[in-house]
Amino acid sequence: MHTKKREISADIFRAYDIRGIYNDDLYPETMLKIGLGLGTYAKERSETSVVVGNDIRTTSPLLANALISGLLSSGVDVTNVGTTSFGVSAFSGWLLKKDIIAYVTASHLPPEWNGVKFYSGAGIGFSAAENGKIRDIVLYEKEVMVSWPDAGNYHDVDLRDEYIEWLAERFKFEVDERRIVLDCGNGSMGLVALDVMKRVKLKTDALFPNPDPSFPNRPSEPTELGALKAAVLRNGADFGAAFDGDGDRVVIVDDLGRMLSADQCGTIIAKDLLVDHRGPVLANVECSMLIERVLEPLGAKIVRIPVGHTFLTLEAKRRNAVLGIESSGHFVIPSFFLFDDAMIIPLKLAEILVKTGRKVSELVDELPQFPKARENLECDDKLKFEVIRILADRLADEYGADRVDTMDGLRIDRNEDGWVLIRASNTSPLIRVTVEGATDAIMGKLMRKFVGIVEDAIRKSKKA
Q1: Is there a catalytic annotation at residue 361?
Q2: Pick the CATH number of 372-463 from 3.30.310.50, 3.40.50.150, 1.10.510.10, 3.30.70.240
Q3: C-alpha Rg value of the chain to the nearest Å
Q4: Which member of 49, 85, 107, 220 is catalytic?
Q5: Residue 418 and residue 304: Cα distance in Å, rounded?
Q6: Phi–psi pair at 434, nearest 5 degrees
Q7: Could you read off the pLDDT of 51-72 as tens digits, one per residue?
Q8: What global pTM score does this model have?
Q9: For residue 4, what pLDDT is reported?
Q10: What sign does the dihedral 448-449-454-460 (CA atoms) show?
Q11: Residues 6+ apart with CB under 8 A from 160
């Protein structure tokens, strides 16, 4: 029986990755075509080697194998690191000096989703333009399949032990009573994180360490952290760390059971790094003004970047940054890696505690606090970016073009009292209004004003 050829949906190609629902808009044959397209693109750039790894989702091994088949068919050599964390995959590509790293994952999305993310061999995420070229090769069937003598070479490697030893050389806790709770969330970090902690001699309690593609205890998004907070308090731990499904994001819970924002965690780490390193600190446009208030007096230049892990890794290299902070929990410390391996963060935080003899809660309470909130306003996908364009002109007239940053959405900084970010969602029919103020009253006033401005622009766009 002949099956009808499936059309590849353009919707699975996002700005910084590829993702879809398995057996809905993402099939094994789709991933084979993506592998063939990636290989064709690599050869256009005179690149010949790709490391492939995958997370613990049910469909990840078969999609990774399909991707590998496409790559080999294009004539590109493949090194397969198998099912492991993002950090181990990226480390493998970096250590082996391969040209490209491809990691099959849907990161924090529900179990039925999957996809793939591409990086340079150094671990820098592919840009929207680079991913767009791969999309066009696949959608317009420009991929090139080689004849059999020219097919790529394939081999498996396992550099997990080398990864653990590399970290152990840089983090040594010979005699220390620190206790940490790791919430692996039944994700990929359960395959390596506890062995890292054991090797560096940190006392560790584990939550949900066994990989389970159904994510039965909490979502792969590290947001519902009641179990981690309770475990930290119950065990008298110094802090807890919760990883997302593939291990490129982390959320910290302090010794009082409070969840730290990425801004707070990043600022604590930056204060330590700035003692021995000079260079800018990167923070995306959603991050708190806390970063400027604390780090600029220490001599750091704060560079705002667009939202997205790709910008974090790309700009960290380009600007020789000390640290990169992404509001969703991605961090880059280039003195270790250019890629956002979440394993580095609990190790670095433990090192700071040992060095200072302080508690995480004490380090947090030293930081100024600024109330922050976000509202999501519904706006049709066909209108949302036009609304942002109209608002850009209006707000530039009202506040001055120098006060309205259009790098990623619209960020209006209002001197010392706060800021507003108006940004269209890349994935949903929404415009998000994020506000931070020096006080609750200022935050509330800014939120009411700018939500009203955006709602008015949405209404007028609907009528146009």
Answers
A1: no
A2: 3.30.310.50
A3: 23
A4: 107
A5: 15
A6: -110, 135
A7: 999 999 999 999 999 999 999 9
A8: 0.94
A9: 56
A10: positive
A11: 84, 88, 191, 192, 195
